[in-house]
Amino acid sequence: MSASQDTVYQATCTAPVNIAVVKYWGKRDTSLILPTNSSLSVTLSQDHLRSLTTARCITSSTSTSTSPRDRLWLNGDEEDINEGGRTARCLAEMRSLRQKIEADNSSLPKLSSHPLHIASENNFPTAAGLASSASGLSALIATLARLYDLEAHGVSQSDLSRIARQGSGSACRSMFGGYVAWEQGERADGADSVAVEVAPASHWPDLHALILVVSDKKKGTPSTAGMQRTVATSALLQHRIKHVVPERMDRISRAIRERDFDQFALETMADSNQFHAVCLDTVPPIFYLNDVSRAVIQLVTELNRASGRAVAAYTYDAGPNAVLYVQEKDVKLVLDVVLQYFPQSAASFPDPFATGVAPTGSKERVAGLDGFNAKVIPQHDEGAVARVIHTKVGDGPRTLDSATDGLLDAEGLPKSLAK
Amino acid sequence: MSASQDTVYQATCTAPVNIAVVKYWGKRDTSLILPTNSSLSVTLSQDHLRSLTTARCITSSTSTSTSPRDRLWLNGDEEDINEGGRTARCLAEMRSLRQKIEADNSSLPKLSSHPLHIASENNFPTAAGLASSASGLSALIATLARLYDLEAHGVSQSDLSRIARQGSGSACRSMFGGYVAWEQGERADGADSVAVEVAPASHWPDLHALILVVSDKKKGTPSTAGMQRTVATSALLQHRIKHVVPERMDRISRAIRERDFDQFALETMADSNQFHAVCLDTVPPIFYLNDVSRAVIQLVTELNRASGRAVAAYTYDAGPNAVLYVQEKDVKLVLDVVLQYFPQSAASFPDPFATGVAPTGSKERVAGLDGFNAKVIPQHDEGAVARVIHTKVGDGPRTLDSATDGLLDAEGLPKSLAK
Q1: Terminal C-alpha separation, chain A
Q2: Which of A244, A280, A282 is closest, CB to CB, to B280?
Q3: Has the keyword Ribosomal protein been applied to this entry (chains A, B) (predicted)?
C-alpha cells in the first residue's frame, strides 16, 4: 500500500472492550491515573466490539507535507493532540521505549524520530453507551507497540498496560484477553500499577455477555469528575477500598480459576451494587442507575432466585446500561426472559450467535420456570431497552494487515476522508 | 358522654408523625426493637398529620358484654390483638406500670384489671405513603398513659418512649415534639434505648416540611425485612454504624441547638443518601428511590447550588416520597421551584399556610434565581408527584376531650361504626 518504493512503517491493531466485575472508582493520583483500589474485568470479543487503529511513521519519503507532525483522527474527525494531554503522554512514553531500543541497536531504523499519523475507529456507535476510551487507548498502545516492534525487544504486555493506564485508567485492562486484574500498586510513580492476566479467555470460554442498552434522558456525571467527588466526600468508599475490595479480588480470582459461576455472579453483582452505593454516598449524590436499570436488577434477582442458582450476573458501569454475564448453557433462557420483559425490534436484537431466540422472547420458556414470579416487574414497552448486544469473553489486542485493513491511505491520511 | 352515672375511665390523645434526619436502619434485637444506631427526627405538626386514639376501661357498669376483653379498632376496622404481638406487649407493659402505682396507692381505682377498648384513626390516607405505625403506636401509649394517669405518678416521656419503641421502633420518637433523638442504648434489656428531646419545637419553630408524595408502581421491600437483610449482608452498614452515625448525631444536634440550617441540611441529605446507599449495598439490593425521587434530589441540589446556601434539605424513608425541610423564609421559593417542575392540581396542593403559591409554581420567581440551571431536570407531567403536603415542626402528643373528640360511643364501640 506504499506510495513509494521505500519501506512504509505502519501497523494496524484492534483492541477489545472490557467490562469490570470489580469496579475501578477513585484515583490516588489523577495525573498518573493510579487507582485507590484494584479492579478486575472480563475482556469482550473483538468479533463484535472493538477499536481499530492504524499508525504510520511519516518519513520524508512517505509524506509530501513540509512540516509533518503528529496527527490523530478519531472516527474520521481530526482531534488535537494537546501538549501535556493524555494522548501526547502516551505517544511520548512509547517513543521513549523505542528510543532505548534504537540506542541499544544502532542498525534499527530511527522510527522514534518520525511524526506519527494515527487513525482510529470504533465499530460501536457512541449511542451504544459503551465507554470507548478503554478500547481506543488500548488499540493505540497495541498499534504503536507493533509499529515500534517493542515485544521483540522485551517489552511485556504489562509494561504496555502501564502506559495505556496513563491514557485512560481502565484501558490497561484491555491489553489482555480473558480475565484481567488491574493491580492498584503501591509505588508513587505507578510502575507497579499494571494489568495482569488472571486467566485467558480459553480457560473459561463459555462466558457470554448481554449488553442491555438503556437510554437515559439525563446525561450522568462524567466518571472522571464523579470518582474524585466520591473520594473527597464518601465515608463508605474508604471502607470499600480498605476492607471489601482486597478480599473480593481474591475471591473472584479464585472463582474464575475454578470456573465457579455462582461465586463469580455473587461477587460481580455485589460489587456493582456497592459501586453505585458509594456513588449515592457522594456529596452531592451521583446516580447512574435509573428505573429501567433497577427493573433489570429485580428481574435477574428473581430469575436467579427461582432457578436456585445464579443464571445471570448483572453489572453496571457509570451509566444505566446493564451488562449480564451468562454461561453459554443459560444464554437462551436468559435472553428469553429479558426479551419477554424488554421486547426488541429485530433491528435492535441482531443475533450473532444464531440463538434463534425471538426479539420478544418465548412465553413458553419463561412460563416453564417453576416458581418464577411473573409479576416481579411490569413488562416494558419496546424501547425501554433500546438495544441488546450479545457477545462473549474474548482475546486481547489483535494485529491486522495494514494493507487490507488499515485506516490510512497512501498519503498517510484516513481512507474515510476520501469517501 | 357516660351512659351511666358511674365514672367512665377513658382518655383521648393525638400523636404526631416524625420524619428522621438521621435514619434508623437495622436492629440489634428484633424482639425488643433495639437499633444498631441512634437516630434523630423532626416531629411534624398534628394540625396536619396525626393519629387520634381513644382508650376506655371496660368496667361492669360501662359494658353489657358478658365476656369483655381487649379490643382494638384501626380506622374503623377491628384488628386482632395477637397474643405475644407488639400491641399486646405494649398493653401489658402499660398495665404493669399502672399495677405498680395501684399497689403503692390502694385508694386508686384498679384500672389495670379492666379490659380495654381502643379506637384509633389516622387523618392521612395510606396513599400518602407516610408510615402510620410511629404516630399510631405513639398515640396508643400516650392515651394509655393519660388513662392510667402515669405522668402524675412519676413516669416520664422517655419511660413511655421505651414502651412505644417496643410497638414500633420509630414510634418512640413521636412521644416528643420538636427535635428528638432515639439513643440506641447499650443494655441488652433495652432500658436505655429511649427517645430524648434535643430541642423543643419552640426552640426552632420556623422549620417547615414539604412532603412530596411520589407514587411507585412497584411495592418496595417492607422495612422490617429490608433492614435485617442489610444487617446480614452489607459491609458498608457496619462502617456507617460505627464510624459515621455517632459523629453525625453530635453534629446535627449541635446544628439544631444553633439553628444552623446549612449544617442541618448537609447532614440530613448526606444521611438520607447513605441510608439508601446501604440499602443498595444489600444482597439482593433494596431500592426505594425511583426516577422521580432522583429528579427531586437533583432539583434540590441545583437550587442549593445556585443559591449559594442550603434552601432545602431532602430526606427519603423506605419509599420514594421526598420530605423537604425548609426554613419559613424560603418556603415560597422552594414551593415555586418544586411546583414548577412537578405541577399539581389544586386538589393535590391544598395550601394550609395560605402561601398563595399556585399549584403550578411561579415562572417569574424561578427565572429570577440567578445562575439556576433550568434544564437540571425535565419539567414533569402532573401526577409525577401525586400530592404535596405542607406542614412544619410541631409539638408532642396532645390530650383531647373524650366527650367531644373521642372515638368511642356510650357503649364503648367506635362511633364510626354507628354511621
Answers
A1: 18
A2: A280
A3: no
Whole-Å CA distances, B303 to B279, B300, B316: 26, 5, 18
Do A232 and A124 fall into the same domain?
A: no
- Find the range with the poorest average confidence among A70-84, A94-108, B54-68, B369-383: B54-68
Give the contacts of B181 (CB within 8 A, at least 6 positions apart): B38, B39, B40, B173, B195, B196, B197, B198, B249, B253
Q: What is the pLDDT of residues A187-246, one digit of tens each?
A: 999 999 999 999 999 999 999 999 999 987 667 888 999 999 999 999 999 999 999 999
Do A364 and A377 fall within a single domain? Answer: yes
In a shared domain, residues A211 and A347: yes
- B269-284 per-position pLDDT tens digit: 999 999 999 999 999 9
Q: Indicate the helix (H) or strand (E) that contains A328.
A: none
Chain B neighbors of A377, CB-CB under 8 A: 218
How many structural domains is chain B composed of? 2
**Using the beta-carbon criterion (under 8 Å), do A297 and B280 form an inter-chain contact?**
no
Query: Cell numbers of B159, please?
Result: 419511660
Looking at residue A131, its pLDDT comes to: 74
**Set of chain A residues whose Cβ sits within 8 Å of the Cβ of B287:** 294, 297-298
- Using CB atoms, which residue from B240, B269, B297 is nearest to A236? B240
Cβ contacts of A270 on chain B, cutoff 8 Å:
281, 283
**C-beta atoms of B236 and A274 within 8 A:** yes
Q: Order the strands of the B322-327 sheet from edge to edge.
A: B313-315, B322-327, B207-214, B385-392
Based on the fold, state whether residues A23 and A130 are members of the same structural domain. Answer: yes
Sign of the Cα torsion A135, A38, A33, B244 reads positive
- One-letter identity of residue A42: V
Strand pairing report for A179-182 and A71-74: unpaired
If 0-12 CB within 10 Å is exposed, 13-18 middle and 19+ buried, where does residue B60 land?
A: exposed
Residue B380: domain span: 207-392
Give residue-wise pLDDT tens across range A9-43: 999 999 999 999 999 999 999 999 999 999 999 99
User: Which residues on chain A place their C-beta less than 8 Å from a C-beta of chain B?
Assistant: 217-218, 235-236, 238-240, 243-244, 266, 269-270, 273-274, 276-278, 280-285, 287, 290-291, 294, 297-298, 301, 377-378
Amino acid at residue number B387? R
> Contact B277/A278, CB-based, under 8 Å?
yes
Query: CA of A217 to nearest chain B CA: how many angstroms apart?
Result: 9
Question: What mean pLDDT comes out for the span A113-125?
Answer: 94
pLDDT tens track for B211-266 = 999 987 667 888 999 999 999 999 999 999 999 999 999 999 999 999 999 999 99
Q: Is B160 exposed, middle or buried (0-12, 13-18, 19+ CB in 10 A)?
A: buried
